[in-house]
Protein 1
Amino acid sequence: MISAVDIENLYFKYRGMEEYILGGIDLKIEQGEVLAIVGLSGNGKSTLCYALNGIIPNTLKGELRGNIKIFDQHVKDMNRAELASKIGVVFQDPDTQLFSPTVEDEIAFGPENLCLPREEIGARIDHVLKLTGMEAYRYENPNNLSGGEKQLIALGAVLSLEPNILVFDEAMAQIDDVGKERIKGVVKKLKDRGKTIIMIDHDFNNLDIAHRVVLLKKGKLYDFKGEL
Amino acid sequence: MMKDRALDPRTKLIIVMSISSLSVFIREPKYLIAILVIALFVSKMMKSEIFMILKKLRRILSLFMAMVLIQSLFIKGGNPIIALGEITLLTDVGILRALEFLIRISIILLSASILMTSSSRELLQGLIEWRIPYEIAFMVSVGIRFLPLLREEIEDTLTAVQLRGIDMEKLTLKEKIHLYSNIFTPVVTGAILKSQSLSIAMESRGFRAYNHRTSYLKLRMKARDYLISSFSILVSILIACLYILR
């Protein structure tokens, strides 16, 4: 079976920087695997995340070397629509991920960009709202929701693209315990449905659902042995 | 909260454009008062939240009043009302111009309140269906969404300054200007970082993946929309003609 993610000898440094933030990453993630990546701030976790979904080098420029393959397809050869429907990322700050006046509009944004027919978009909105338990908030303004609820909508907005791989880039860092539990509940459901999940986090309490934990330190990956 | 969907957002845009254009074009108080009355009537008919908007704008209202005052002081034509020796401070024309300005601003605010009876997504869709490029229409919509975030950024920075023991109330005007020039950089940097995060989130969700996009929201102009739009345009032309031929 082909790997969901296959990274070979990945190096990256941002434009204008002297040092490589990613200094030779080799990583294979199997389909249906839940991988946790831990590490201190500034060690390249978010950069790795941006490289995985093509934000690097398409939007954030710099020097990139090595190979990143998603389901055996090179990320650099994939267009924006392919990337969005294969790999979805939930970022840390819900306020910079939500920009629509209602939850329904927010979830519809991605499928609309992929030019899906209206009926299909409607079906996806229904499905995602049910999965995240946010049906009652369909016509609510995301600004009026709690941090955890906002993050559930951000997750829902990503899930509406039906990606095979989900990346959580410290998605639970800015929310309270109740919100964390709700998000973890949805992540568990996704795990049971066989989604490939990458969780980037500081908090070890959020990593109990991972099959494997690796440490990203100074741009390199190591087996995690309990200390950062 | 569900927005009012009795009228198509394009109809509301036409009404607002008609009223606002008249307020900019016309320069006579009695005509402007008539337009203000029309704007108030339409705004009331649309059940727009005028008082809520005024409440939100109460900080800017003092700025408007200051502008009205300055305008009345700097216009020197007409008969003097208040003078200090040879120097005229206030004239009847100055008061008239300031009044015009105040009415004009009120008309524009009332028009804006009509637009707020639709969600930004509906207005955006209206603009798209008028063949305005999606990117431009979306930028306007996101800009409006991010104004409160920018305000939060300024408030957070000011709180951080106050937590370091600076009492804003006790600062002189010169010190306040100095302080604001210092917080300008972190506020702008924060806004740039937020906009970068937003663009990354949008691109991750396929924004501009293709030259066009579909829409879940469908707008449909009904007979009453065509009727009201035509009526608005005709009344605007009529008022403009009456004003020109007076």
Protein 2
Amino acid sequence: MTHTLDITKEHCPMTFVKTKLKLAQIAEGDILEVLLTDGEPLNNVPRSATEQGFKVLDISKVEGNIHKVTIQK
Amino acid sequence: MFDFTEEELTRYSRHILLKDVGVEGQEKIREAKVLVVGAGGLGAPVAMYLAAAGIGTIGIVDGDVVDLSNLQRQIIHTTPDVGKPKVESAKETMNAINPHVKVVTHKDFLWASNALDIIKDYDFVIDGTDNFPVKFLINDACVMAGKPFSHGGILRFEGQTFTYVPGHACYRCMFKTPPPPNAVPTCSQAGVLGAIAGMLGTIQAAEALKYITGVGELLTDKLLTFNAKTMDFRKINVKRRENCPLCGEHPTVTQLIDYEQGTCDLASHKK
């Protein structure tokens, strides 16, 4: 199952806090698509997710400064 | 599941960011019930850090009122609190730090007659007391009830602590009986560097949080001691003893005991 999370309005460290909350709420193996802005969120969220044992499947540009990070739990 | 509000997510963000705690660990912290015995030098930092951490229910036991001489180390109380019951003053500070925490006050000392009844509602117990009779009472009650607890003691520039979990060494495995009354001075007689209380109390708070979240290795079967004059820390391996009078194979301590207090302790408790 695929879930989405928009953290484009959040700032560090709440970007990853919100990502972790959503990841805790979904089932093992599910996919989470996270919409975030470039700069700090784009640098930190995929790196932290990988460090904490999640699998970052893809990072792609959506439009403007917004990117989509696809994470598997 | 994991229904944290926006305010709670921000408040606990530094816990949630930790790989070993996360949302799941914070949920365990929120569901936990911890009893702090003594709202003094050790109980003050323990209760403040546990409240800040978001422990759902914190019980606090103390029959004393705040005295001016407490303020040098008992940082949960402030100058306007002098004369107020310690449990009330402690509750005010804890709820000022974190209004989400339910603080249950027990305005009494722990005795053989009430110990089991008070500890029964809690998952983890903190020994923040200043005298041997109550330290043995907490140990005995927790071993009998199968409750984990953190032992803590401070004097002058030194501190010691260990964590009891059922199946591991208890206080009586290390020290069979309390020393005779007045044989060992208490803080009120010998003095204590105030910051030592913070050093030891925060270790106890960390042990409680580690137990609740299941993170890391506890101070079980280890006695941690330190001397702040040299800042030497030692971890001494201890073993559960088969001939322990309490948790051994043939226990001789089968009911709770109110050991005799030193005269100075009694005087301060009767105030």
